[in-house]
Amino acid sequence: MSSEKRQRQRENRMRAAAEAERAQKRSSTTRKVLRLVLAVAAVLLALLLWSVFTGDDSDDGDSEADNGDAAVAAEPTEVTSFETDEPGDEAPSATEAAAEAEADSVPDEETAEAEADSVPDEAAAPDPTSCPAVDGSDGPLSQFDAPPPLCIDPDTMYAAAFDTNMGSFTMLLDPALDIDSVNNFVVLGRWGAFDGTLFHRIISDFVIQGGDVQLDFGRGGPGYQFTGAFPPADDWYRIGSVAMANRGNPATNGSQFFVITGPDGAGLPPLYSPLGHVVEGMDVVMEIEGVATGAGDVPDQDVVVNSVTMSEASQAQIDAYTDARS
Hints:
Structural class: alpha+beta
Mean pLDDT: 80
Order of helices and strands: HHHEEHEEEEHEHEH
Radius of gyration: 51 Å
Distance between the termini: 171 Å
């Protein structure tokens, strides 16, 4: 075969291949156009259907989108039924009712002021450096940073009425004996410091001792010490006398005290600041003295001071005191 013939064959094959490629491209383009046409048709159909099923049936023909409401609830909201107060009133919408309820819940200025006036002020905490209320309403308080100020009348005798779980008795407190010790006792009593304490030490024929406001069996006190007076005479102590307990020195007075119940107590050295004398219920004091005790003279059963009430002494109590000391 001549070279010219072979050349023509190559050219024919190339033309055939090129024609086949062009035919293939035309077929691909046709398919793409067809798909695009189908897609556009589908979109147009969907828009047509949407306009048919979502159109507004109202007389003015406006669609919901035309009135400016862009938000559409995905789920139905709960509808609340409202009853009208009067026949013919139109029931308010849920939004309007909520607004009205909120408005009703806001008090007017006059009401707000009245409510503010009705709120009581916080009770002021008692000042432990001041004199407590005479009626004892400021307590209870039993710990202080310093001895109390003078809160009693030096010319007035006072009565301390003890209510215990074994009965009641009353001691008269005489400021003429030792104004500092009597003032201290009266103030502690008005603070309620003795309420709930114990007679923690009982010794037959000697004393009953109490006033440990920390309930530490004779080791507790009010948080301070002060210096009291010595008794007016070396033989001042007698059965029924009341004095401050200390460490053998009136400069170590605190809150503890004792009542003398026997001759051993009456023979004490004059080292304990005098307070006064039991003028009522000495039988109860002696009953307390009769309680059995264990180690350290601690009673086997609790002798509890339920309360101590302070008051000015009555004339009958003053007379009983005068008789007891004569």
